[in-house]
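Chain X:
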Amino acid sequence: MGAGPGGGSARAGGKLDKSWREVWPHAWELLKPRWGMLAYGFGLMLVNRVCGLVLPTSSKYLIDNVIGHKQVNLLLPILGIVLAATAVQGLTTYGLAQSLSKEAQRLINELRRRVQAHLARLPVSFYDKSNTGALVSRVMSDVEGVRNLLGTGLVQFAGSIVTALIALGLLWRISPAMTVVAVGFVAAFSWTIRHSFGVLRPIFRERRMLNAEVTGRLTESIAGVRVVKGYHAEEREAAVFRGGLDKLLQNVFRTLNAAAAMDLSSRVLVGVVGALVWYMGVTRVLSGAITLGDLVVFNLYLGLLVAPVTQIVGIGTQLSEAMAGLERTYELLHMTPETEDARRQRHIGRVRGEVAFDSVSFAYDERQEVLHGISFRAAPGTMTALVGPSGAGKSTVIGLLAAFYTPTAGVVRVDGVDLAEVRLEDYRNQLGVVLQETFLFDGSVRDNVLFSRPQASEAEVQRACAIAHVDEFAGRFPKGYDTVVGERGVKLSGGQRQRISIARAILADPAILILDEATSSLDSESEALIQEGLQYLLRGRTTFVIAHRLSTIRAADQILVLEAGRVVECGTHGELLAREGRYFELYTRQQGLERNRFLAPGEGEAEPETEKVRVAGGGGEEMPNPELY
C-alpha cells in the first residue's frame, strides 16, 4: 500500500508515543471555548444522575415501610416521586443529546475547516511526500472521534463518576465493612483497565494510519481508473486493496479482543462482588445488623458504584480513539506553513519581472542534489526556454521560480530581491502558470476561469475567454459558461481544457508566466487556436517555458540547455545551432524524428534535403536548413 502522511509520513517522523497528559492540552484547547456549553451539560447531567438515585432509594422504603410495616399510605407518594424523577431524567437526557451532540458536530466541522486550511498552507515539499487519499482521510476521519470529547460520551462518563461518589457515601452509611470489600475489588479492576488502555491507544493510532493508507490507495485507483482498465489491472488493484483491508481487519480484531477481554473482566467483577456482598449482607440481615431493605438498596447502589468502571470499557475506548485521532490531527496542525517562514516578511510591489539565478543548488533530500550551481538572468518582458532530457532539472528550476521550494545554496532574485525573503501572497498573486497537464476543478467553465482572480467582472471573464477561444466551444453548450466540466475537466477535450487554462492565466494578468509546453500533446487545429491565446499572454511578461518541442521556442530570447542539473549551454536558437553542441544534437535529432513520421517504410535512412543556409555566428559554415524539417 502507498504510504502517505496518513501512514508513511507518521512513521518517517517517528512514532509519537505521547501520554494522555501530553495530548490532553490539545483536547482542552478545543473544549475551553465551549466551557459554557460543557457547564450546562454537566448541570443537566447532575440533575439526571440525582434523579437516577430516586428509584434505588425508594426500594428501601417500599420493602421496609410499605411491605414490612404495612404503611400502604406511602405507596402512591413514593410511586409519584419515582415517576416524576423518571420524567425529569428523560427530559435531561434529551437536553444533553440536543445540546452537546450538536455542539460536538459543530466542533468536528470547525476542526475539519481548520485542518484543511492549514494543509493548504503547507509547502509543496510536504505534498511531494504525501498520499492524497491519506490526507483526505486525515481531514475527514481523524477528527470524527473528537465528538466523544464534547458529546454525551465524556459527560456521561463524568456523570457516572459523580453518581459513583454519591453511591459510595450511601453504601458506607449502610455498611462500612461491605463497602470496603466492594471498593477493593473495584480499585483492582480499575488498575487493570488503566493498563489495558495503555495497550489500546497505540492500536487505535495504527488503525488510523492503516485506514489512511487504504483510503489513499482507493483514491488513487479511482482517479487512475483509465490506466487500470487500459492495462487490465482490475484484479491487481483489487488484490492490493484487499491486502490493505486485511491489515485493517486484523487491527480491528486486536481492538475487539482487548475490548472483549475488558468486558469479560468487568462482568466477572460484577459477579464476584455481587456474590460477596450478598453473602455478607444476608448474614447481617439474619443477625439483625441491617434490614432487608438495606440489603436490597445496597446492591442497587453497588451497581451505581461499579457502573463507571464497566462503562470505561465502552466510553474509555471511544475516548482513546478520539485521543489517537486528535494526536494525528495536531501532528498536521503543528507543521509550519510556508507562509509563516520567518524569513518571508518582505513586501514586494508590482513585479517588473527581472529574474536572476545566482549559483543556485537544490536537493529534495540531503542525499542527492538535483541542481548544481545554476546561474542565469532573465530581463523583464523576455522569454526564457528550458530544454533538456528528462530528469535534467527543468521542473525543479520552475519550482524554485514559483517559490514552491527554497534553494539549498545560492539565491533566486526577482527584481533584485531574494525570493526566499518575499511574502508569498505578494509574489504568487503576480505569477501565472499554464501546465501541459491542465488541472480543472469539478465546477463550471466560468468557475475554472475565475479561479485565478475570483473578484474579476463578467466582462473581464468573457474577454479572457474570447482571447483564449474558450467562447467558441462554450457557446455551443446548452448552459454556456455555466456548463460543468467534470472532475479534472473529463467532459472536455484536451484542447478545450487547455484553452480554459490559458483564459485563467490571461485573467490573472501575471507579471511572470510559466508555461510547461502547453501545446505539445494537442492536434494541429487546437494548437493553432491555443497559440493565438499564448501570443497574447506572452506580451510584456517575463516568460519561462519548459520546451518539449524545440521548434516552438525559436523566438525565445534565451534558451537554457540543462543536463544533470547544470546549464551546459545558453543562447538564442540561432546561436546554439551554430555551436553544434548539445542543443544542436537535440534539435536535429528531434527534427529528424518529426520528418521520419511522414516517410514511407524503408525511407527512414533517406538523406536530408541538401539546401544549405548560413547560420548566424557560424563563421560561414553551412548546415541542412532546419526549416525543411
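Chain Y:
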Amino acid sequence: MIIICGRFEITIEFFYFCEMTEDVINEPVSKTANNYTEDNIKTLDWREHIRMRPGMYIGKLGDGSSQDDGIYVLLKEIIDNSIDEFVMGSGKTIEISLSDSEVSVRDYGRGIPLGKMVDAVSKMNTGGKYDSRAFKKSVGLNGVGTKAVNALSSFFKVQSIRDNKTRIAEFSYGNLTCEEEKETTIRKGTKITFVPDPEIFKNFKYRKEYVERMLKNYVYLNPGLKIIFNGEEFYSENGLKDLLTDNIDEEIVYDIIHLRGEDIEIALTHSRSSYSETYYSFVNGQNTTQGGTHLSAFKEAVVKTVRDFFNKNYDPSDIRKSIISAIAIKVIEPVFESQTKTKLGSTDMGPDLPTVRTFVNDFVKTQLDNFLHKNPEVAQSLEKKIKEAELERKELSGIRKLARERAKKVSLHNKKLRDCRQHYNDQKSEAKLDTTIFITEGDSASGSITKSRNVETQAVFSLRGKPLNSYGLTKKIVYENEEFNLLQAALNIEDGLEELRYNNVVIATDADVDGMHIRLLLITFFLQFFPDLIREGHLYILQTPLFRVRNKKETRYCYTEEERLSAISELGKNPEITRFKGLGEISPDEFKNFIGKDMRLEPVMIGRDTTIEELLEFYMGKNTPDRQEFIVNNLRVDL
C-alpha cells in the first residue's frame, strides 16, 4: 500500500487483490440437454446458498486491500448488532480484538435471548429486528448479516450472557459443532468470534487503516459510545463535527457549522483551496458511500437555503464548490439498494411520516438559515467564497465548453480509452464493484492489457507519455490539457464522484524510474484536483512481476527479489529466469495472470500527519535543500 503522508513516513506494502469470481464453463450441448425433469430442481439450505453466492450478501470478496472487500463487511455486520444495542440504551462499550485472521467483538448489551441464540445466528428469517418496536431505526432489518458471517467463516463462536447464565455455541462453515449452557457471574452482553473462510477469501488480511476508519465513523455517529480496538480507544463527544475536524486536511473558510435535530445531524464548512465537493453521508449509522435520497435532499436544501438567505440566485455549483459536509439521519425500516447498504433507496422517513426530501429540506431551511442570521461573520465569509467560485466558473466557462465538445467528439472514436461494458455508476450492474480502469504508459503496455483484460469490467486509458506536473496550477489546466481533460471525462468526475464510472482507478506503469515518475505525476493530479478519489479508496497502483522463473513443468512469477530466490530454490537446478523490464514486454497471454483474480494492487491513501498543500509543496514544488536532504537520507540502492 502507498500511504501519502509526511516527508519522513512513506511506507509501501504489497498485497494480493484476489477477487473471487465464478467460473463459467461452456460445455457442448448434449442430446439430453432438453431433458428438464424434477432432478434438475434443487433446494439449497441457507449455508449452501450463502457460500455459493456470497456476493449477494457481502458484495465483492477481495483480500482486504480495498475498503469495500468482503472481510470488512463481515466485521461490520457483527459490529452493527452491538451498535444497535447501544442505540437502544444498553451497553456503552464495545471491545474488538483482531489478530491475524481471527476477529472478536464483545458488547455489554442485553445479550441474545439464550433459548433463541443458535437460531438467531443460523436460521434465515430469524432475528429480533423484525419487531420494529424494538429496533425501529436499526442498521440491519433483514436478519441476514450474522448468518452470512457464520456461513462464510471456517470458525464462528457466539456467546450470550444474561440473567446470570451464559450459552456458547460454535460453528464451522455454518454447521453447529458444539453448544453448552452454564451459570456465570460475568457481565451481560454478547461476544462473537469468527475466522473468515480462507478458501473463499484468498490470502486475506485486515488492514488496520480501514478498520480504524470504520470504527471512527461508529463513534462519530454515536457520541458517548466507547470502542476499544486492540487496546486503542475511540470516542467522540461532538459527533459529525469531530468527523469533519479529524478528516479536514486543508484550510477552511469558516468554522464548522454543526446542527442537530431529532433523527438528523449535519456539519458543514468550505475549503479555501479545494476544487471538489466532499460529503459524508449516513443512515441509521450506516456509511452510505454512494449517497441516496437523503444526500440528494441535503444538497438541494443547502443551495435553496443559501439562495433564500442572500436573496440571490447563485449557481448551485458555486454554492457547493469546495464544500466539506456530513449528514446523518435515522429512518424507520430503511430500504437500501443492496445487502451492503451503500445507497439509501427509501423515499419516506417511515410509516405516516414525511418524505426524506421534505424532512431534510425543512430542517436545513430552518436551522441553517437561523445559524447564518445569528453568525453574520460566517455568512459574509460564505458569500465571499461563493462569489470567488462564480468568478472562476465564468473565467473557465469558455474553456470548459470547448473542452467538453472536444471530449464528446473524441469519445466517439477515442483511441485513448478502451471502455468496458459495465460501470460503477450503473445501479443495475451486478459487477459494479469490480469495474476497473487501467491508466497505462504508452501503446505497448496498453496493448497487452487491452488484449488480456475482461471486457465486461476492465477499461484501459492510454497516456501519450509523461503527464504535466499540475502542482500549483489551477483547474483551468484540466480543461486546456487534452490528456487531463480526456481522463477527467473518462472517469466522469468533473462534478464529483457521484457518477464515477469505475470503482478501481489503477495506475499501471513500468517499475522503473520513468514509470515511478509518471505515477507521482498522476497522483499529484488527483491530489490537486480530485482528492476525494483517493480519500474514498478508489486509487491503486498495479503491481506486475519483475521476474519469471520456470522449468519444463512449472512457471513462477516473482514480484520481489525474495520471491525470485525462493522460486529458484524450489524449481530445481538451472531454471530459466527472465527479467521483465516493462509492461510492454509481457505478452497478453501472460498479462491475463496479473489482472485477473490474482491481481496485486497497492491502495493509495492519504496520511493524517500533514495537509495536501504541504505534501504537494514538499514533493512537487521547488527543489529545496530540505527535499535534497530527504532524498539523500532515504536513498536505497539495490545491489
